Amino acid sequence: MAPRVLSAVMFSPRGGSAHVARALAQGLREQGWAVTLVAGSRGAVGDPGNARSFYRDVRPVDFEPALGSEDPSRFEGPPGTAPIHPSYEERQGAPDQVFAKLDDQQYDAQVRAWTRELRRAGAARADLLHVHHLTPLNEAAALAAPHVPIVGHLHGTELLMLERIAKGAPPGWVFAERWAGRMCQWAARCARLIVSPAGVERAAGLLDLPEERFVPLASGVDIESFAPRQVDRSEVWHRALVDSPRGWLPGSPPGSAHYSAADAARVGRGKVLLYVGRFTAVKRLDLVIGAFAQARSQLPGGASLVLVGGHPGEVEGEHPAEIAARLGVVDVYLAGWYLHRELPPFFNAADATVLASEGEQFGLVLIEGMACGLPAIATRSFGPSSIVEDGVSGWLVQRGDEQGLAGAIVAALTDDDERSRRGAAARAAVGERYSWSSISAALGEVFCEVLSEAPASAPALAALRHASPTRTRPA
Predict the structure, then answer these.
(1) What pLDDT, on a 0 to 100 scale, did the predictor assign at position 301?
(2) Strand, helix or coil at 96?
(3) In terms of domains, do 191 and 267 share one?
(4) Of 83, 390, 415, 373, which Cα lies nearest the Cα of 221?
(5) Which tens digits make up the pLDDT trace of 248-262?
(6) Total number of domains constituting the chain
(7) Which of 77, 8, 82 lies closest to 42 in space, CA to CA?
(8) Strand order of the sheet with strand 352-355?
(9) What average pLDDT does this structure show over 374-395?
(10) Residues 15, 160: one domain?
(11) Do residues 318 and 289 touch, judged by C-beta distance below 8 A?
(12) Are residues 280 and 251 part of one domain?
């Protein structure tokens, strides 16, 4: 019998970690692991945050009953439900409060619900638990299956919250130190901790653990779906900005940011700088828009900055539309939130991607764009520094350097030959380093190491290795 892995993620699908969880679960299954995935879920089937729609093969934990209650963070409901998950970011008006504001009763409600859900999913019968992020899921895992080893998987957002606490928690984060202590304890219980290759030292310092406890592992990309393809650029942007707009303005629903046919035509015939991601403070959209404003006068023939993303209603700090208005910059377009599988046409209708994050643990959108043959413009921030080779597959500038970022934008959008050369190198680098098959195989080897330390798992581990005789530990 193949080793049984229970993989769990508390959050409903909305960010990069959900794509990682889905791809790894599928990749491990293809290698012969028996994987059960448990995940939070919001909305009806078909909605972006619905776990069944996103993962398909999953045991969903529904947040909708909690959201319909008087206090979603204290909700206690029947099996299959849980209180709304907290967040590592503080977003005004959002039902998911920042972790550091939750008191002991709210924490206990989370642990009780997730302990029940992990037990229902068979955690005690698993050979190994794969827990994404550091959340009350870790405590629930220890209660539901105390003798099963845990491999933790860090995605970076938890480290951002720990950094904010270490620098001095913002007003209102009254339980910040308590949560930081819990997260360190959860990390210490893990047999291994998966982290982005550029984040080992950072994670070890924040969690007060030796670097040997961490396993560097990149995220991957589906290089068949994300690949260079000819598209009608004018048609792509006309559909996204005019026919079926999804961009949203502050306090307004998707579609409230809509544009004219002339706007879409201007985008389609000019150079396009593409941002894909959420509207959170760490992404530094103020820097992206400010640099684009500086660069715009030096871009002959015009250029556009298109922002694809911004989960509906979710914004941390100043909305990008407000930033663009404050700076008086035109040709900034809000295309709205799209499912992951809908993104390739946008990359193929653009010329370069940009990511100016202050503390990006990895940077999945960079490799997705690179897989489509786009060079990347990014700041030297943990993950991007390990993904983008400056001068080869893109441009790297110092964090917070708006002028340097503007210079990179000008270079990328004015030199067609250099942009093409770096884009080709970017595509080649992704194929060599970031395919999901190689990433899943590497994670499988980590699991094998952990199981080899647990004698009770020896029969299942032997069966897996017998079925996969060519697997080797990657360098």
Answers:
(1) 76
(2) coil
(3) no
(4) 373
(5) 999 999 999 999 999
(6) 2
(7) 82
(8) 332-336, 303-309, 271-277, 352-355, 376-379, 394-397
(9) 90
(10) yes
(11) no
(12) yes
